[in-house]
UniProtKB/TrEMBL annotation:
<comment type="similarity">
    <text>Belongs to the adipolin/erythroferrone family.</text>
</comment>
<dbReference type="InterPro" id="IPR052136">
    <property type="entry name" value="Adipolin/Erythroferrone-rel"/>
</dbReference>
<dbReference type="GO" id="GO:0046326">
    <property type="term" value="P:positive regulation of D-glucose import"/>
</dbReference>
<dbReference type="GO" id="GO:0045721">
    <property type="term" value="P:negative regulation of gluconeogenesis"/>
</dbReference>
<keyword id="KW-0964">Secreted</keyword>
<keyword id="KW-0372">Hormone</keyword>
<feature type="domain" description="C1q">
    <location>
        <begin position="1"/>
        <end position="132"/>
    </location>
</feature>
<dbReference type="InterPro" id="IPR008983">
    <property type="entry name" value="Tumour_necrosis_fac-like_dom"/>
</dbReference>
<keyword id="KW-0325">Glycoprotein</keyword>
<dbReference type="InterPro" id="IPR001073">
    <property type="entry name" value="C1q_dom"/>
</dbReference>
<keyword id="KW-0732">Signal</keyword>
<dbReference type="GO" id="GO:0046628">
    <property type="term" value="P:positive regulation of insulin receptor signaling pathway"/>
</dbReference>
<protein>
    <recommendedName>
        <fullName>Erythroferrone</fullName>
    </recommendedName>
</protein>
<dbReference type="GO" id="GO:0005179">
    <property type="term" value="F:hormone activity"/>
</dbReference>
<keyword id="KW-0379">Hydroxylation</keyword>
<keyword id="KW-1015">Disulfide bond</keyword>
<dbReference type="GO" id="GO:0005615">
    <property type="term" value="C:extracellular space"/>
</dbReference>
Length: 132
């Protein structure tokens, strides 16, 4: 049947929710429930190649944390080993978190190498309410 195509009845069904603040990079939950979060960051190194000997074995952590609290179990995390050759890394983190109404989630980068990094355009951060 034609219903299996699942066409949206109106365009507003796909609008961006009011919870995402692009200035602060925070998504604030409009209501309590389980949200699936995903972020893909394209990260570039801004350091001359001759200074890179300390990179090998360094780790880059990308986290999505609730209320800026990344210490306990209310966060998502992805860890990537950094090789000394590349200039551009793509790291993704995805998962489900429970947020109370009014709580926010945001993306953090833990740069253990301590070298200057730039988040490139094309990176993204999204949140979808799964259910209450």
């Amino acid at each position: 049947s034609s219903h299996s195509l699942c066409q949206p009845e109106r365009e507003e069904m796909f609008h961006r929710g009011p919870g995402l603040n692009l200035t602060s990079g925070q998504y604030t939950a409009p209501l309590a429930g389980f949200y699936t979060f995903s972020s893909t960051l394209h990260i570039a190194r801004r350091e001359p190649r001759r200074k890179r000997q300390g990179w090998r074995g360094s780790r880059l952590r990308v986290l999505i944390c609730v209320q800026s609290c990344c210490q306990h179990n209310s966060h998502l995390e992805s860890v990537s080993q950094l090789e000394s050759s590349g200039d551009l890394f793509t790291i993704s983190v995805m998962g489900t978190l429970y947020l109370q109404a009014g709580q926010y989630a945001s993306v953090f980068v833990d740069n253990t190498a301590g070298s200057p990094l730039t988040i490139q355009s094309g990176s993204d951060f999204s949140a979808v309410l799964l259910g209450v």
